[in-house]
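Predict both folds.
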Amino acid sequence: MMWGVKRTARLALDNRDLLLSALRAVAPAGGLVLELGSGTGEHALALARAFPHLLVQPSDPEPVARASIAAWREEAGLPNLLAPIDLDLLTPAWRRIAADLLLCVNVLHVAPASAGEALLDGAAALPPGTRLLLYEPFIDGPPPARVTRFDAELRAWDAALGIRPLAPLLDAAARRGLTLESRQAGREPGDLLLVFRRAAPE
C-alpha cells in the first residue's frame, strides 16, 4: 500500500512487536543498529522509537524504498533515526559500517541464493559479541502450504529467488563463528526469527 511516497506493508506491521520483543533481550547499551533491506522503513521507525539510546541506520538498494524511509523519518522527527543509505547486501561496501547490531527482515527469499552467505560474511566480520537478528521464511522439514505456494510464486517470477532451506544456512553460520543463540516461530507459518551471536575467536 502507498500513501504518497510513504509505503506501508501488512507483514512489517504484523511482525513488528515480535521483533521488538526479541531486540529488547539482546540490544546493546548503545551504538549503531544497521538494518539491511529496510523496505518501507516501518521497522526502522519502530526500532528508533523503542530504543532511543541506539542510532538506527536504515538502508535499501531500491530508490523507492529509500524515499519511503525518508518520508517516515521526516514525519517522525526522531533524532536517532538516520537518513536511509543505498546498500546492497550482495556488495561488500556495507561491511565497512561499524554496526553494533545487524537486522535483516524478509530479504533473503527475494534475493539470489548467495545473499545468505553474503549476510553471514558481514556478520562474521563484526566484533565478538555482536548479534545478527534474521527474520525470514525458511524450509525446515516438510513446508507448510503457505511456504510451498509462496516459493512457487517467487520462482515463477524469477528463478534466482525462493525460500531457502534452513540447514545450510545454520551450517554456514557455524563455519563463520556465528552461534545460534535463539530461534522462535514467526507470525506466519514457516517464518523463523533467528538470533546469531559473533563468537570470540579461539
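Second protein follows, with its predicted C-alpha cells after the sequence.
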Amino acid sequence: MSAEPPSNNRARTTWHEFCDVLKDAGDLLTEPAVPQDEQTQAEGLRYLSRMARAALEWYVEFNDPAFPILYRPAHETIKLGADNPDNLYQKAVIDGRHEYRLKGQRGSVDYLSMATSRGSYAENFTQVETGFLDGDKLAIEADGSFEVIISEQQHSGNWLPVSKDSESLLIRQTYRHRELEEPAEITIERLNTDAVPAPLELMTAIAHFEKAIAFYRNTTRMFADWSQKISEQPNTLPLWDQAFCQRVGGDPNILYYHGHFKLQTDEAMVITLPEIPKCQTWNIQVDNYWMESLDYRYHRVSLNQAQAEVSHTGSVTIVLSGVNPGCTNWISTAGHSEGTLCFRWVGAEGCVDPQVVVTPLNKVLNDEHLGLSRT
C-alpha cells in the first residue's frame, strides 16, 4: 500500500490538474463545427479565460456556505449561457440544512426574483429549483426595506424555501432602463451562528479546486454544445424546451427562445412579433458564437419592451444588422457575421413565435411597408 503523498505534493498535483483542464479546453476552438474566422477564435480564446475566472470565483473565492457572500457570477467581463444585458445577477453558495436571512432595499429595478437550487454545473449539469420568490410578492416596508428568510421550514413574512440538498441562491434583477432605475441592495447572512471563518485547510482548498476543475470542464463544453445545436437551424429563433431550461437554472417566470444568425455585411435579419401578449416584460439580445452577450457597454445589442416601438396594429418589427438602417427598433451585430440570439418573455400569458426573415439591407433602408419608424 503506497504511503500518503506529502501535503505539498497533493497541492501541486491539484494545481497541475487545474492547469491541464485549462490546456485541454483549447481543443474546443478547433472542433469542426466551430467557426474558424479570426473574430470567433479571438472571442473563444477570451471566453476560455473568462470561464477560468468564473470557476475560481464561484468555487474557490465564494464557496463557504457558513459565510455566504452575494457576488456577481456574470457581468460585463464574465459572460456565459446568454447572460442578459438587462440583468444584474447575484449568487451565493448556501447549505439547505441551515437558515439564512436576506436584508435589502427594494430600489426601483423593474423585475426581481430569487431562487434556490440543488445541483450545479460542476456536478451534473443541472440546477434544479428548490424554492422561488417573485419580487412582485415581496412584502416591503414603507421605507423600501425588506427581509427574506431562507429555510426548509415555512416562515412567516417573506420566505424563500430550500431543501436539505440546496446549494445555491440566485437573484435576478432586470432593468427596463438601466440608466434610470436603482437596483435592490441586498446582503445575506447565515442565522444562528456567532463563529468566524476557520483558517483554510488543505483538504478544503483541494475540494474547492476539484469543483472548479469540474465546473470548467463541464461548462465550457456545455455551452459549446448548446451553440452547435442552435447553429443547426441557421437564421431562426425557435422556442426552446422549457423543461430543459428549468433543469439548467432558468427562471420559471421566463419563456426562453434561442436562435442563430449568419449574415453578410449587406444583409439584415428582420424579426416580426405579430402581437405582444400580456407580460411583465420581454427582451431580445445578440450573443456571439460562445453564447456570451455582446458588449452592451458600447453597442446596442439588446431591446426590451420598454425601449421598443410598437406599431399601430400592435406588432413589433426588430432589425438586426451590422449597419444601423435608421429605424427605432434596431439591434447591432457589433461587427459579428455569425452568432446566437436569446429572446426572453417574463410572465407572458401565451407565446408569440417570432417571424424571422433575412433580407438585403438596402431593402430595409428603403422599404416603407415594414412599418419602421425612422430615427
